[in-house]
Design brief:
The complex is a heterodimer of chains A (38) and B (322). Chain A has one helix and no strands. With 38 residues, chain A is mainly alpha-helical. By secondary structure, chain B is mainly α. Chain B is built from 13 helices and no strands. The longest helix of chain B is centred in the middle third of the chain and has 49 residues. Chain B is globular, with a radius of gyration of 22 Å. Chain B starts with a helix and ends with a helix. The chains are: A mainly alpha (38), B mainly alpha (322). Chains A and B meet through helix 1 of A and helix 5, helix 9 and helix 12 of B.
Amino acid sequence: MNETKEKNPQKWERSYTIVLIANLMYIIIFYFLMQYFT
Amino acid sequence: MALLDWIVLLSTLFFIVAYGSYKTKGSKNINDFIRGSNESKWYTIGLSVMATQASAITFLSTPGQAFHSGMGFVQFYFGLPIAMVIICLVFIPLYHRMNVYTAYEFLEKRFDLKTRTLTASLFLIQRGLAAGITIFAPAIILSAVLGWNLTFLNIVIGALVIIYTVSGGTKAVNVTHKQRMAVIFLGMFAAFFVILYSLPQDITFNKALKIAGASGKMEILDFSFDLNNRYTVWTGFLGGTFLMLSYFGTDQSQVQRYLSGSSVRESQMGLIFNGLLKVPMQFFILLVGVFVFVFYQFNPSPLNFNPAATKAVAKFRAGCSL
């Protein structure tokens, strides 16, 4: 393991925010798809 | 099966097993075998994590679920990205800091040997039973296509899997999972476009989805608090998060995927990659099922979708009439 690069692996990363926002985006897209096709 | 089908099937099987065995020959110690020498990059981990969760059952039962009940099953995965973030923040740094080979080794260090033995035993029993079903599902398909004995096919598939996992360890599984995902995605897109082009000419993509919507198959989200409804947005977030936490965080079949990372960051990025792709991937698999449903609005559907079962019924009827 390369420990020098990983001083604090428990720090919040921007990628975590991105994945959570993407999840919300999926739900919003699904909502509009559902509204349009039903 | 036509000659081309045989060539594709056999060369795919041979290539995956041979490539996995070749790329991973020379695994010398326990670190090579269980943690793949800690050489895996984030994309290998991500694809391997996805391929581990997506067995043949996913590609058989998920379209079936959409065919029967619509797209609502996708809500079950809304908790997955949340679980991925929690595992990245808590589980991965912990496992790496304690330098463990299995999730259960951590429990021994944290509690005692009895706790490790109990959880490891539970995992082995559970995984053994699950692996049986995972092998059984594609064996049913091959049995229907080839007309071969189901038990024989179970043994053949099981033997092929054992050859490359035992000879190559985690690295072999990670390496071959990339090919597996490529085959899975190609197959999925091919199935989708075959169904789309098999629809009547005046039925466009939009019209097909309208037909599915009119039949209640496009009820993707359910915001109700009805306890009798298994798949709602809330059960997806709450139940899905905890279920995915237990599966990805404590099931060795998944833990060993990200313990093989070349760094904590690579392991974390692998899981985030999975968190980004899983929901759209499941959506697409469900969509294939919805299009199969639309296809059968214009074509007579068989009483039994398994040709082997149809043959068995026909044989039985022939026997009765004699």
